[in-house]
């Protein structure tokens, strides 16, 4: 955990961060499901830009909780990698072809790592919020 001042933690709006982060994490589950729908049922391709999805916009407009900058940055980097992997996966399945297995495996692995990292950040932010006066 990075050092942060007691005043910084006391003035940080943990509730707003946690509520917003929880909501956009839900929407990222939805995005993941839409990727699977595009692969399995040829449904419309969801946005693949990390800047256009709700999660990406949240990361770009909210700062990290005090002392959680490294965790926040890890989530951000995994988010970018997951969108790149989704683009590779969807592109590999264009024209009605079966998606490349390697691209699928990478996407699934990144999704799991991304979610675990998100849950860790959420848990840590919640724990920090309980320690504030």
Structure, explained:
The structure is a single chain. The longest helix has 31 residues, at 101-131. The mean pLDDT is 92. It is elongated, with a radius of gyration of 17 Å. It has helices spanning 6-11, 14-41, 54-61, 69-92, 101-131. It has 133 residues and is mainly alpha-helical. The protein is 73% helix and 0% strand.
Question: How does the SSE layout of this entry go?
Answer:
Elements: H1 6-11, H2 14-41, H3 54-61, H4 69-92, H5 101-131
Feature tags:
0% strand, single chain, 133 residues, mainly alpha, 5 helices
Distinct helical segment count:
5
Order of helices and strands: HHHHH
Number of strands: 0
Q: Structural class of the helices, strands and pairings?
A: mainly alpha
Low-confidence segments, ≥5 residues, pLDDT <50?
none
Q: State the end-to-end distance.
A: 19 Å
Q: How confident overall, as mean pLDDT?
A: 92
Strand content: under 5%
What Rg do the Cα atoms give?
17 Å
Largest sheet: none
Shape: elongated
Helix % is over 70%
Short description:
With 133 residues, the protein is mostly helical.
